Amino acid sequence: MPNRRAFLRLTAAALATQAFDTAQAAQPMHTRPIPSTKEPLPVIGCGTWRTFDAGDDPARRRELAEVLRALFAAGGSVIDSSPMYGSSEAVAGALLAQSHTRDKAFIATKVWTDGREAGIAQMEQSLRLWQTDRVDLMQIHNLLDWRTHLATLRDWKAAGKVRYIGVTHYTSSAFAQVEAVLRSERIDFVQINYAANDRDAEARLLPLAAERGVAVIVNQPFGGGSLLAGLRNRPLPDFAQEIGCTSWAQLLLKFVLGNPAVTCVIPGTGRREYMIDNARAGIGNYPDEAMRKRIADAVA
Q1: 6, 162, 175, 291: which could join 287 in a potential S-S bond, CB 3.0 to 4.6 Å?
Q2: Which residues form the NADP-dependent oxidoreductase domain (predicted)?
Q3: Are 51 and 266 in contact (CB under 8 A)?
């Protein structure tokens, strides 16, 4: 039987969860259309690099189940992973199956290997790990052997095994190659790095994606984590309240979403409270160019 302190702690957690769910129901997360189909996609998702690599640890799996619960309660859906991320696909797939929430998830994963047969084998393994016969988005991770895999992805899309196809990268040094793919190929999504202190994508890639009708998923919106970590002990600027931000994380995410070419941003987290905080960047107003400059100057 729990003691008084434990009971009060559990009661407070339950009330906080109820308040969060009520607030999110009253003000659902914004969506943006996937250009190739006009399907609405919630603007805040969840990355799984490192954070969901929990293996068989039951305590960590319980924590991650709460992360997904918070994502869905906020109206989010995108869960992004990769075979590169250790046990992340298996963990996320098991949690969706156990909670019967596959229908709430937009599963985005990747192929990350050389060669056609190896790529097919890896993607089939991903389907098994996600415990599904179809994923929403299959991406070519870091453009590895992209010409080979793109042909397979088109076959899989035609067969209904994937709904959308795309390419990814995480560093600005690869933007010229990403740009060449966007110009020469028809794809649904591109995933790239972009943050208030990492703005190279603004020059060519984001305008090109908009021109070509390609949805943009942004990774590393916190500058790979280093930007947010460096801001934790600095006071939030007063102007943040003008766009409804109560944390640095929300301000950095709203900076990214202030660019209309961005469809969704996927900050990685393994903690429920961070998922809740991130999701709040998916409601309210977004900064105009003048405000975006103020944000960039504030984090410089």
Answers
A1: 291
A2: 44-291
A3: no
pTM of the prediction?
0.91
pLDDT below 70 — which residues of the chain?
1-26
Distance CA 128, CA 37 (A): 27
pLDDT in tens, 10-50: 444 444 455 445 555 568 999 999 999 999 999 999 999 99
Domains of the chain as residue ranges with CATH:
40-235+260-285 (3.20.20.100)
Cα–Cα dist 214/190, whole Å: 7
What was the pLDDT predicted at 26?
Answer: 67
Cβ(285)–Cβ(258) below 8 Å: no
> Rounded CA gap, 292 and 289, in Å?
5
